Every structure is written in C-alpha cells, then in structure tokens.
Amino acid sequence: MAGRDLRALFSTNDRGLEAGEAFTNRQMQWELVAAALSEHLRHTADAAFDVEDLEAPRDNVLAFHGVGGIGKTTLSRKLEAALASTDRPAQWGEPTWARTRILPVRIDLSRSAGTDFEQLVLTIRAALSTLGRPLPAFDVALRRYWEAQHPGESLEEYLRRGGLVGRFGKAMPQQMQSAMADVAQALLLPGSIGTAVGQVTGSLVRALRERRQTVRALAGCARLADLLEAEPDVEALSFYPHLLAWELAHLPADKRVTPVILLDTFEDVGDRTHRDLERLIQRVVWLMPNAFFIVTGRSRLQWTDPALQGQLDYTGPIAWPGLTAPASAIPAARAAGAARGRGRQVLVGDFSPEDCDDYLARRLSRDGQPLISTEIRQVITGRSHGLPLYLDLSVLRFLEIRRTREPVPSDFNHDFGALIARTLSDLTPDERHVLRSVSLLDAFDLTLATAAAGLPHQAPVQRLIERPFVRENVFGLWPYHLHGLIRSTIRSADDATDDRWTEGDWQQAAERALAALGTQWSGAGTTGQSRMLLVGCLRQGLTLARDFGLELGWLGDAAWAYVSDSVWEPIAPPARPGSDGLETPADALVELLAALARRQHEHRSVTASRLAAVTSSHLLPADLHEMGVYYLAKAHRDLGDSTASRHGMQLVADGGGRLAPAAHRGLAHLARLAGDFPTAYDTARTLGWAGRQHRVEGDVLWPHGDMDRAAAAYAAARDQAEQHGVAGERATSQAQRALVAAFTDPAVADDELHLAEQFLTGLDLRATSLTVRIAALVRDAGTPGGPEAARDLRAETRDAGITAAEAVLELALAFHHAVLGEQDKVRAAIDRLRELARTGDYAYYADIAHYMGDLPLPGPSRTRWLDGADAVRARWHRLVRSRRAHLGADG
Whole-model pTM above 0.85? Predict the structure, then answer.
C-alpha cells in the first residue's frame, strides 16, 4: 500500500471497508531506474567529469511515457519514496548505491498544481536546504533575482504559501541570508545586508573580476560574475542551476549528495508550438549534469530532433544520446545494458492480467479479504486492456452500485467516458478528429489515416502517432494501431466533449475509411505484398461495411481476388454485438467469405449449411450470389451429394459468369466420380486454364493407372498456376503429382512431396494437405507402419467430411496390403470403399482395389474406362508387382 484511497473512502458509509492505493509491481521500470542511476553515479564520480563542461553530451535523464491513466504518476511517487528509502517494495530489491546519498525531489508540473518555472527552481533549492549549509554562488544570485522580481515580498512567506516550507522546512531563507552575510563580510562591506543586495552583488562581481583572495571560495565558479551582471529576470534564473551544480560539485565529502529530480506530468509543460517552459526546464537539466532527472509524461521527449533547434537550446542525438533509442519492451534482465547510454525513453506498459487481478484484490478489502469477487475481477481485467485508470474507475463503479445492491459481473461490461476526456485533453482539434477516425480501423499508416480523416495534409496524423496510446508494430502491414481500451472506449462510450461526433459524423468517417482502404488495395498492383494487403483491406473493409451498413463497392472485386488464389486466410471480423442473422449485403459477404475460409477447419456439412443460408438470403449481387452457389455445390460434392452438387454446378455453368469455367470443371469431376471417364475426359479437354484443364486431365488419368501421363498433366497444371501466380492451385497440382509419383517411384516421390510441402507453407488448404499425407502413405506402402498412420488420417478425413479423401486413403491402404499379398485385408479395404460408394459415386475405387489385389470383380461394373477394364487392371497390377520388386519381395 502506498497510502489511503480517499476517493474510495468518501464513496461509502461502510467504515469497515479498507481502501488503499494499491501499487502493482513495476519491477522492470525500477531496474531501469537503478541501472541508469548507477551508471550516472559512476560517470559523475570519474575524475574526468567536469560539472562546468557545457559541451559534453548529457545522459542524466530517464523518461517514462505512456497513455493517460497508465500509472505514471503513481510510479513517480513510488520512485520518490523508494529513492528516499522510506517505502520500497520488497521485490524491487536493494539499490547498489548504498554509500551514496540520494536526494529525491519530485515536482508536479500539472496545470492543476500550478507549478511555474520560478517555483521549480525554488523547489530544487529548498530540497537542497536539507544539506544544512548555504550554497553561496546560487544564493547570492537568487537573492538578487528575488529583490528585483518580488520587491518587498518575503521569500519565507512565498515558500510557505507554495507548500515548500511544509515539505522542506524554512532553512532556505536563513541559509540565503547567511550566504549574503558571509559574502558581505568577505568583502568587508558595512551596513544592513537586507538593504544592500545590489551593493553586495556589485562588489562581488568586481572582486571576482579582480580575482581578489577574499572571494577565492567563489572565484572557481567561472561564470558567476557573468550571471550576476545579467538582468535578473526569468531568462537569467534559468541559468542559475549551473551555480547549483557547481556548488554540489564542491561540497565536502561528508556532505556530497546526488539530487534525483522527478518531473511528473511533463505533458502539461507545453505543446509542440509553445515550448517556452520546456526550453527553460531543459536548460536546467543540461546545466545540472551531476543531478539525475526522471521525467514522466504522456509523450516521448523530442529533444533529439534537430528540427527543434531554436525552440530548444540543446537538440539532436549527439546532445542526448540516451534519448535516441526507446526502451519500450526491454526485459528486466537487459535493463542494465539498456541504461548505459541508450534506452532512456521507456514506454510504461499495460498491467498484465495477473497484475490487474492483484491490484483489484488489494484495492478494496474487508478483514483482509478482497471485497471485489473473483468473477467481477475477471470481467474488469478482461475489459481493462491492462490500463490502471480503467481499474480505478471500475472500483468507484463497484462502490456506487454497492450502495443499492450487490454488484454482479455483468455490471462491468462498461465503458467510461472519463477515459475519452483523459485521452483528448491535450490533443489539438485536428488530432482529435484523426483519433476518432482511426478508431474505426484495426491498424493504419500515415496515408490511410489521413484519407480516413478526410484531411488534406498528414501533419496531424504524424503528431498523433507520436502519442503513447498509438502503438507501433514495425512488422505489421500497417504499422500503427490504437491502444485497445482507448479505441473501444472512443467507439462506444458516451462522449461528453464539446467536439463530440454525431451519428452522421461517424457514418461519414466510416465511408471515408472504407474508400481509403479500397484505394490502397487497388493501388497495390502486383507487388509481393498485394495478397497481404488484399486480406488486410478485406478484413477492415468488411467490418466497416457490416457495422455501418455501407455499400459493398470495391469489396466485391476484392472478394473475387481473395477466392481466386485459393489460399483461404482467416478473413471474418469479430461478430457484431447484438446482430441477428443476415440483414445486409455486407453481412452476407462476411458470412460467405468466413464460411469459405473456415471450411478448411470445419466439417463440410457445416460449410454447406452456412453457404445455404447465404444463398437463400438473396442479399448479395448476382455475381457474388453465384460464388455462394458454386462453393455450396463443391461442399455437396465433398459430402457425396452429387445430385445437389450437379444442380448447383449446372446453374453456375449456364449463367456464364466468372465461375462458369470452374463449374464446367465441377461437372467433369462429377462425371468422373460417377465412373463416366469418357465424358469427364472430353469435358476436361475443353476447359483451358480457367477451368484448370491439365489438373482435371490428371484426375482422369491416374485412376486408370496411367501415372506417367497423369504426372505430366499435373506438372503442366502446376507450372501454369505458377505463371498465373495462383499459389493454391500450384500447391494442389503438386500434391496430386506427388500422389501419382508415390505409386510409381518412392525415391522420386520424396522430392515431389518435399516440393508440395514447400508450396503449402503459409496456405490453409485442408484437402490438399490430406492428399500430401496420403501420398506419403502410398510412398511407404509395403513397409511397416502404414495402417497405424492411416488410423489418424481416417479420423481426420471423416472430421473434414471430404469423401474423396476418404476414398483415396482406403485405396492407399489397399495398395499397401496388395503389395504384402494380404488378400483378406485388401477385401476389407474393398468393403470400406463400397460403403463410401453407396450413393453411386466413387464406385471405381473398389474396382481399382480389386485390380491391385488381382481379385475378380463380384459382378458387372458400371465404370466406363477410357481404354477398357483389362488395360486398367493390367496397369494397376503392374504397379503392385513393381513395388514388390522394389522392396525385394518378388525375389
């Protein structure tokens, strides 16, 4: 516990409630502080270190930044306590500077605190008053400034009003007076010190210029005389910290101290246009190289940007080497390495789920037990995205609900408008507009965000992406995305800000975002990234079209491009809350593409049911409706329902649309499955590339045992697919080539299988993957282990609902047993094949199994072979004998 949570205590009449400010472990941040401070102490202890060197790079600042409500102020307070050794979490461990005196000084720069630059300087000096001695070089200069800027005003009273006397005591004015008296005495000046500030400083400057021995204690401060001669205004005051640094460097050994100055809420110092206060504060950091500064704020320090030269005194990566590399995700074990001159910009990350639960459990308690139940804590944690402010607001909501009834988990499916206010508070109007616009997108880049916002220039987007609630994934298609909670809250919570959007504003923004995605996709051309961009644009575009009821537009062409490659990446966006079935064309298109992608992971009966719902809704335009009908017919074929499949394929073929060639191919497959090989072959030879002619020819030839011609056909299909850039077709053709090679030559099959597996990398083709695994069984036919491996495969093919794969698997087993001369097991495989052929299709597989085992057919066959049953029997039996010879079984 870091203190009492007064808001919680004053939200209830329950005096038995224990409300504490829970501090959840920030061990990585502490280790970064410890490592950086240790390095700073080693640097300042080096004999070569010179506090008056104004040109050396500075590495005396560590900046923590993060979204509003992430816990930066709590971290700053806890660091102050830990550095003062008054309240350090046990898990943080002991510091390594036990023999060095550390003096933490925390300064709140928030607007509500009202801290100006003058008060900042006075706070640092007041903290140093605990040393118990004057700092004459600084004190004389500050006394001169005070008399000029606050004539007749008591410094002690000013410090009391500002709360500094309460924090550090009232020794500072006394020390300043003592410093003035000592200087006056050294200069042998008469009269009242209180009325002789000008005389003292004037005489001191002359003595310094003349290098008198009476002021030798101050003569070593080379720039003291220049500062005392300068006009005593705020500009001069900003250089006085150099005098403090000099005084600290010349303290006796037993008085040595290292100030650690914690500057909190740095975002309130100014903005990108008005940097006057930031310039003064940066000057303090630069002029006090022997002090260590810990800055906490919403944004990264931009001091390494050379473009700020003129707005700030010290800019660029050479001046601030430690601020050039962010330490966004440095593991604790690397903290020390990161602190040595690099990684001084640290993103304060979200709490882990475990930390969230721990925070909520300790925040409210009764008799030492958590007041918030486990179930409620789980809901809050899940919705918080790890943001501490959300946890705080949820605690207050818990107490509010508890006034009238016992809270339940559903009470915390809630968004807080306060999060919006915190997020928008320091954004410009253009940045707010961009933020709301990009909240519609999962991810974005500069171009996409600018177009989605409808702005003519990128500057507001560029400024926004520098904010800590915009996360970056350099490997992503679009590198930027909003913090999850910020995004969901802006989209869903009541927005009470002055510039809140109406429903019409959101609708227009969605239209702009959808159009911008279409522009990016259509402009991708044929680059290697185009497939990734297509899928990304579809995912985001489908969500926008569905959630806002937009026209499909470019999404129709994108859907055709998606199915043309037969890759089937997951495409469906998350379900829309409160949706009830298919209501719009966008709903139907989302379901259509989701069903096509999921069919690689679902039983074909599920696919058929989903596609039937899409086609029966009649929400899609004619060409996309045709797509649904075609793939529904394919699902029926996989399920063995050839009648339904033939009906759908014929409808698509007769329509003459984009899928007509594919439908003609489907009709050829159905003829083959019925055993009508002449019709299938004649149809195949008319298909061309659009109908995948070569692959269909191979599908007709290999059941005839004509493996050489089938392999050549599949190779032609594979090469043609590669020329057209259709990855899915290339993988499928190669898998089929590997299958026919596996029947003829196991050594060749190894190479073909390896190539097929390479082609399948990154693709999601379930049927093709099963073909490759069955081909591996055929390659190993006649060796131990085949039936055992087949058991798992049989279960997978049945789970997939792909009858063709089941039939080829049983044929592979029949080949294995035929090679071994296990006639009974061949007959068992034939029985399973007959069961698969009960609808009339796939019957020729049982014929082939008879031919492999040199068994007579039980009766007349309905199969119409291209060159007669005897030729087919001879070729298949020859393959069995060849395998026996290969294995040495024929002697």
Answer: no
